[in-house]
Design goal:
The structure holds two protein chains of two kinds.
Chain A: H1 3-17, H2 32-35, H3 40-54, H4 69-86
Helix pairs in contact in A: 1-3, 1-4
Chain B: E1 7-12, H1 16-27, E2 32-35, E3 47-50, E4 53-56, H2 74-81, H3 86-89, E5 91-93, E6 97-101, E7 107-111, H4 115-125, H5 130-142, H6 154-161, H7 165-177, H8 188-201, E8 204-206, H9 210-223, E9 227-229, E10 234-240, E11 243-249, E12 254-255, E13 257-262, H10 266-271, E14 284-292, H11 296-299, E15 306-310, E16 324-332, E17 348-356, H12 358-362, H13 366-385, H14 396-400, E18 401-407, H15 409-416, E19 440-442, H16 451-468
Parallel strand pairs in B: 1-2, 1-13, 2-9, 6-15, 13-19
Antiparallel strand pairs in B: 3-4, 5-8, 6-7, 10-11, 11-12, 14-17, 14-18, 15-16, 16-17
Helix pairs in contact in B: 1-9, 1-16, 2-16, 5-8, 7-8
The chains are: A mainly alpha, B alpha/beta.
Chain lengths: 87, 475
């Protein structure tokens, strides 16, 4: 998986948990909560969806790594790839 | 965690908060079961059928209504967190409501779902108070959706900005009637929640009432894999080592769950552990319901959605000395929402709600209870009619009435299990939801959020904070 595909996977999740948000212009280097109405509960949903859909576990200590799309990609892409390599 | 546990989470009570918490937890893969003593879901916002007609128990209007596209609101939050599409709740906005004070209802503040109307009403009827009113609105806008810390007095706060006691009472009256568990005052946090819910946001209703919302919640809960056991009350909580070690059901069966969420109230939950009731004064209500053979507007009553009335110099919000305090109350016409062209309730409904004293209803023998109901039914309606356009002929209401029903605090206690029929629970709320037991949490009325949307938000936030553990600040 590439960084771009990873960002797409995260955006797909956000589209489902926040259907009322416009996601067409999300800036990858800006914190998600600074450009979208997402609170800590919504981040919890992102974490849950990552586990449910992709089998990726994000421990609480790492939640800050999900701040922006860029940081998501940096943190999650290796996890996606590690899972793909295992299967 | 607990190797013998049958469930990760047991929820006591299948009202709005319990169901919302259940959906949330089941979504996150928790093994969750809701235990409900009644045979129907809904709790204080239940529904029933009588004589072939459908009635709502609590719902006058869903507060906190905002149209699609308004962000950062309680309604938006619950829709998101429960994965509910706005259209599923099918909420239709109110036509318009008013506060009517004075012996003939001559002092009026109208309000709708557009806050600008209330602003202009205050500015034109209380010109010297307009700036103070704006200050209050600003405070509420800046308050957290959860209302903030408990304890402060809303009246004291309002008096800092408003000097006319009439306006103070007129603004507080709807907020207290729709959500104060305290006599003659409100907790400031509750005030902020209710001011937002009623004035900044507004009223709506699904055409078919609260059962529409209940159906949606049940469907989501089932889809997410949640279990539900009806007619299956929790008789006691077994306490061991500072934990809720097990729940004993009415049948005697024991249930072990790692965590327990109780939506039944602070005192009611304490009673499951053998604690005596706190003796706190709670507030009860009576409601009269008349079913009409025509729309209220056709009878000559116009199209008010809700009317909050008071005939006296000051607005008294106390446990009445007699059985009922008919001086003030709430009139609700469920017909008067914008259901859309060609859609509406086939029959008219006229509901009037007043404060009532629990003890004076609870101690009555059956025929005495029936007589009191009959007597108060008429008195309450007569009181309310003073605040509506006069009907002609005089007996037009009686002629149009095809069915009636009435509930008292004892009815509420019987069907919801809330002690003394307290609709808004204990006077002192527990916003944190924690208890003396490390794995027992509260949600619902006594956690502090009120109304249909508030109840759901309560269940969601308690599930998030205590069981799913949303970090306080993330990213």
């Amino acid at each position: 998986m590439t960084n771009e595909e990873c960002k797409k996977a995260v955006l797909d999740i956000i589209a489902d948990i926040a259907p009322d948000e416009d996601l067409s212009n999300v800036k990858p280097d800006v914190r998600l909560r600074d450009q979208l109405q997402l609170d800590s509960m919504d981040f919890l949903d992102i974490v849950m969806e990552l586990r449910k859909r992709h089998g990726i576990e994000v421990p609480e200590a790492d939640y800050t790594r999900l701040a922006s799309l860029d940081s998501c990609a940096e943190y999650l892409t290796p996890k996606f790839n590690a899972l793909a390599a295992k299967s | 965690m607990n190797s013998g546990a049958q469930y990760d989470v047991a929820i006591i009570g299948a009202g709005l908060s319990g169901l919302a918490a259940g959906i949330r937890l089941a979504h996150f893969g928790k093994r969750v079961c809701i235990f409900e003593r009644h045979n129907a879901v809904g709790g204080l916002n239940g529904f029933y059928s009588l004589g072939g007609r459908k009635y709502d128990v609590g719902l006058h209007a869903v507060t906190n209504f905002v149209p699609s596209g308004v962000k950062g609101t309680p309604l938006g939050k619950i829709l998101r967190q429960l994965r509910i599409d706005r259209d599923e709740f099918a909420l239709c906005p109110q036509k318009g409501s008013r506060v009517a004070f004075g012996p003939d209802g001559g002092r009026v503040l109208r309000f709708t779902n557009d806050f600008a109307l209330l602003e202009s009403e205050v500015a034109s009827h209380f010109p010297r108070e307009a700036a103070g009113f704006q200050r209050i609105a600003r405070f509420v806008r800046e308050s957290p959706l959860s209302g903030g810390p408990a304890g402060a007095s809303a009246r004291a706060f309002v008096r800092e900005s408003i000097s006319d006691p009439l306006l103070e009472d007129m603004l507080l009256c709807p907020l207290m009637f729709y959500g104060s568990a305290r006599e003659d005052d409100m907790d400031l946090g509750q005030f902020a929640i209710m001011f937002r819910a009623l004035y900044l946001e507004g009223f709506a209703r699904p055409l078919e009432g609260v059962r529409v919302m209940m159906r949606v919640l049940l469907e989501k809960y089932r889809e997410a894999g949640g279990e539900r056991r009806m007619k299956c009350g929790v008789r006691s909580i077994v306490v061991r080592d500072g934990r809720a070690a097990a729940l004993v059901l009415d049948s005697g069966e024991e249930i072990v769950a790692s965590q327990v969420l109780s939506s039944i109230g602070i005192t009611e939950t304490g009673a499951l552990m053998g604690r005596p009731p706190s003796g706190a004064r709670t507030l009860g209500y009576v409601e009269t319901i008349s079913v009409l053979d025509r729309q209220p507007a056709e009878l000559g009553w116009g199209d008010d959605t809700i009317v909050f009335f008071n005939d006296s110099d000051r607005f008294t919000y106390r446990d009445p000395v007699g059985q009922v305090d008919p001086r003030s109350g709430i009139i609700c016409f469920p017909n008067n929402f914008e259901y859309g062209p060609g859609r509406g309730l086939a029959e008219g409904f006229f509901r009037v709600t007043c404060l009532a004293n629990y003890e004076s209803w609870a101690g009555l023998p059956e025929d005495g209870y029936r007589d009191c109901k009959a007597r108060w039914f008429g008195a309450i309606q007569e009181s309310a009619k003073r605040f509506l356009p006069r009907l002609s002929p005089e007996d037009a209401l009686a002629r149009a009435t095809v069915a009636t029903d009435m509930f008292t605090p004892t009815t509420v206690e019987k069907f919801t299990g809330h002690f003394r029929g307290a609709i808004y629970g204990a006077p002192d709320k527990n916003p944190g939801g924690t208890t003396l037991l490390s794995n027992l949490y509260l949600c619902g009325t006594d956690q502090g959020m009120l109304g249909i949307v508030g109840s759901m938000l309560s269940g969601i936030s308690m599930a998030n904070q205590h069981i799913l553990r949303a970090p306080v600040a993330v990213a």
